[in-house]
Amino acid sequence: MIQVITATFEDGVLKPNEPLKLPPHSQVRLAVEPLDEDDERVRRQHAWETVELLWRRSTIDSQGERLSRAQLHERR
């Protein structure tokens, strides 16, 4: 099983940003690709714009109000 994760390099150690689904002492193969925060932000914005475009082109109509991104991610 391949997991794609992000990690932070601190004090000579890669520290995963989220828990890994691995048993203790597992050996893994790493391919390290530095992330540029600006590139990541651009990729996410492009992905969201693509979703919105597909949404607008959709022939499915629920007859309901379309929520904004902020409304969809609102947490109570």
What's the short version?
The chain is 33% helix and 11% strand. The chain has 76 residues and is of the alpha+beta class.
Task: Outline the structure in words.
It is elongated, with a radius of gyration of 19 Å. It has a two-stranded antiparallel sheet. The protein has 76 residues and is an alpha+beta fold. The two termini are 35 Å apart. The chain has 2 helices and 2 strands, in the order ββαα. The model has no long low-confidence stretch (mean pLDDT 86). The protein has one domain (7-60). The chain has helices spanning 37-57, 69-72, and strands at residues 7-10, 13-16.
Descriptive key words:
76 residues, alpha+beta, two-stranded antiparallel sheet, 2 helices, 33% helix
Overall shape: elongated
What proportion of the residues form beta strands (DSSP E)?
5-15%
pLDDT < 50 stretches: none
Give the H and E element order.
EEHH
- The average pLDDT is 86
Number of helices: 2
Structural class from helices and strands?
A: alpha+beta
Helix content: 25-40%
Q: How many domain units?
A: 1
Intertermini distance: 35 Å
Could you give the count of β-strands? 2
Biggest sheet features: 2 strands, antiparallel
Gyration radius from CA atoms, angstroms: 19 Å
What strand line-up does the widest sheet have? 1-2
Show the helix and strand layout.
Layout: E1 7-10, E2 13-16, H1 37-57, H2 69-72
